[in-house]
Design goal:
It contains three helices and nine strands; from the N terminus they run H-E-E-E-E-E-E-E-E-H-H-E. The chain is of the alpha+beta class. The chain has a single domain, classed as Immunoglobulin-like (Sandwich), CATH 2.60.40. The strands form two sheets. Strands 5-7-8-3-9 form a five-stranded mixed β-sheet. A hairpin with a 6-residue loop joins strand 1 and strand 2. The longest helix has 17 residues. It starts with a helix and ends with a strand.
Length: about 170
Amino acid sequence: MILTRRRVLEAGGGILAAFLARPAVAAPIEIVMQGKADGSHVWFDPIGLHIEPGQIVRWVNEDRGNSHTVTSYHPEIFERPRRIPAKAKPWNSDYLLPDETFSLRFDEEGVYDYYCVPHEHAGMVGRIVVGDPPAVEAAAEAAGLTPLPAVALNGFPQIEEIVAKGIVRRG
């Protein structure tokens, strides 16, 4: 086969068309971990997020004075009540120092509640709604599991508000 300019251009056009036909990968959506300089208040921003299945969320610790975690509520992790979809895998980022990140892809529709292990009692919690989940009932506290403190339970934005706004920032 003789390589002509026409054949090179045809091959290049085919490769370009194949590349352009691939679905674009969306950039991760960021949630920032923040805190006051004196450590008196810590939070996730945004605290509520509505995304589509398959999207990636990246948490970034921008709090110079604290390390934080991003930990799902699940019996396999510190014997906490399950507050993620039944088919979803639980996660724990471990401690993130300033400027460190943790990323996770959300494939299952539903509501995902998470918290920062050392700061849950300070109300450092967040909620991600993936897709258009059916009505979600409040998770019952299972016997033998560590219940959520009231400040954490009161910190979650309402699912309807998250879906309506897309992003909910802390109060």
